[in-house]
């Protein structure tokens, strides 16, 4: 792979450990999940936790490994070969854990983050609403305070783990504050009174994770379960902005794994299948698809790894937001193209359940939509580019002046 030379010895060892874990996942679990016979595979998380493979970036005192983002990207690719459902459930520890690690109180970290990383506490995130979609601040979930208790009312849809999670990270607006960005608050809501699963979706792919719509009906949440405690009221905007890093990077990392799995299946098939007296990989129509797929996956890996290093280095938040959006957009679209190439190489048999490529196709289709559609990624990318570009002085050579007619300034009219 393109980043092989950039991996540390620890990351190479981690990759082997995750590969061993992924190889141990029962085939029947995957089949049962895709057949919607499983609502929440808790045993998968328990085993990952037992092996110390959850929450890799978090501090050892909470059960994590204290590893950098680059290491997590290595692990995500390997878990990604299992498909979107298990990849998402694995990633939710990183996603919800990010919120608790960065914004939570010490008591919240001990109560929730520790058992999450151990695989003993299932977590989910309530972000999208029926009327909200990509418009996060249009959320209508309300939090009414009475003394030391908030009562949440509203709905969240497309919640992976709605059926099985023990804890939900829920965004809602505190009543009494008109500015939606100041009213938005993040809550840690335990499954219990006032939290109902109203609908479980029939999905094209990404099945078996108990994805559903939850309804909050005056769900009581003590102030101590505001993310960050009483001081965290109104913190939702900051939490959301931070959360988009793991939300999108986990999708980017797992996407490469799904694409890799598909093209390796197709490559093996192309080396065995014969037509017109030779292996079909000898035909340019097939071999070029394999070459293009390998190039896309290597480019996605390299971009993801570079973005991971930028996150670790810190610095300008807008630049990081742009790179994260580029990684999510490029990796998910690359995976979609690669899986389609794989199906085309397999031909008709690829459209059947003889090979898992048809399942990967159904799974991958979702990741260009969730955690911010790729159209939203485009908006973020160009916005952050222009924000940075506008404040930068010209650097290096002024290439614009190299045109033969560059001196005719009157021809460079920008206004009507």
Structure description:
With 416 residues, the chain is an alpha+beta fold. The chain has 3 domains: 4-122, Acyl-CoA dehydrogenase/oxidase, N-terminal domain (Butyryl-Coa Dehydrogenase, subunit A, domain 1, Orthogonal Bundle), CATH 1.10.540.10; 125-233, Butyryl-CoA Dehydrogenase, subunit A, domain 2 (Beta Barrel); 238-390, Up-down Bundle (Butyryl-CoA Dehydrogenase, subunit A, domain 3), CATH 1.20.140.10. It is 50% helix and 13% strand. The protein is built from 12 helices and 9 strands. It has helices spanning 9-24, 27-34, 42-50, 69-80, 84-103, 106-117, 180-183, 236-272, 284-313, 317-346, 357-367, 374-390, and strands spanning 123-126, 142-146, 149-159, 167-174, 184-190, 195-200, 212-222, 274-275, 278-279. Strands 1, 2, 3, 4, 5, 6 and 7 form a 7-stranded mixed β-sheet that branches. Strands 8-9 form a two-stranded antiparallel sheet. The N and C termini lie far apart (51 Å). The model has no long low-confidence stretch (mean pLDDT 94).
What's the quick description here?
The chain is α+β, with helices and mostly antiparallel strands and 416 residues long. The chain has 12 helices and 9 strands.
